Amino acid sequence: MPPEVNAFSWIFFIFMCLWTGIALFATINPYYFWKLAQSWKALREPPRAYFVFQRIISGVFALIGLSILLLPHLLR
User: Fold this and answer.
1) pTM of the complete model beyond 0.90
2) Which long-range contacts (CB under 8 A, 24 or more apart) does 35-42 make?
3) CA-CA-CA-CA torsion sign (36, 52, 16, 42)
4) Predicted pLDDT at 74
5) 50 Cβ partners below 8 Å, 6+ apart?
6) Measured between alpha carbons, how far is 61 from 2 in angstroms, rounded to an integer?
7) How far apart are CA 40 and CA 52, in angstroms?
8) For residue 45, what are the CA distances in angstroms to 39, 42, 55?
């Protein structure tokens, strides 16, 4: 395998680990994630429905990340 492919594999793996970790964090604690990422540009807190929707969407992204990370190992 060429070294470029191996380097890309590691970069992709690190990216997917970060993706999944951030998505899991946003799923577990959507309010704190909003405080870190979005509160600086808001005049007031969003309604509760925003956090419910954010939790659902970030859970979907976490499942996508986990499936991309685990699928190659499950197909062997």
Assistant:
1) no
2) none
3) negative
4) 80
5) 34
6) 31
7) 20
8) 8, 7, 16
